[in-house]
Amino acid sequence: ESTTEQQEEKKAARMKIRVTTPEGKDIYYNKVWWTLRDVILYAGIGRVQALGLREADVPLVSDHLEDSNYAKAQHEIAPGVYLFTNTSTLTKLKELNIINEKLGLGMTIKTE
User: Fold this and answer.
1) Rounded to the nearest 5°, which phi and psi values hold at 25?
2) Which residue among 8, 17, 46, 55 is least packed, with the fewest CB closer than 10 Å?
């Protein structure tokens, strides 16, 4: 295989997620965690936090930074609210689907 073909395969493997709200607003970023962040803000931080989603024993949405190796993987999405992002795109897709279904948001979620 040529180097160009290998590079194209790597680029093609980077999956992104497009979320469309019932109002027709697209939530779509190059960084999948930004898409997840905006869906959480759309749904309501408290409502998502109440779902109790956890990955690697860290809450998806937390009101404090973890004292572990994962603190660097928590991003502040609102004052004093942190989103845990050290997960695969497939895991983020699963989380988006859970948030959409459990909260009845009626969003369309597609991978690209």
Assistant:
1) -80, 130
2) 46
Residue 17: CB atoms within 10 A of its CB come to 21
Token pair belonging to 70: 């994962």
The count of C-alpha atoms lying within 13 angstroms of the C-alpha of 100, restricted to the half-sphere facing its C-beta, is: 18
Quote the pTM value. Answer: 0.86
pLDDT tens profile 41-67 = 999 999 999 999 998 889 999 999 987
> What number of other Cβ atoms are within 10 A of residue 71's Cβ?
13
> What does the DSSP 8-state code read for residue 31?
S
Distances (CA, A) of 110 to 18, 35, 59, 101: 5, 12, 24, 14
Residues contacting 40, CB < 8 A, separation 6+: 48, 61, 77, 83, 99
Cβ neighbours around 12 below 10 Å, total: 8
Provide the strand spans (E) within the chain. Answer: 17-20, 26-28, 54-55, 58-59, 61-62, 74-78, 81-84, 108-111
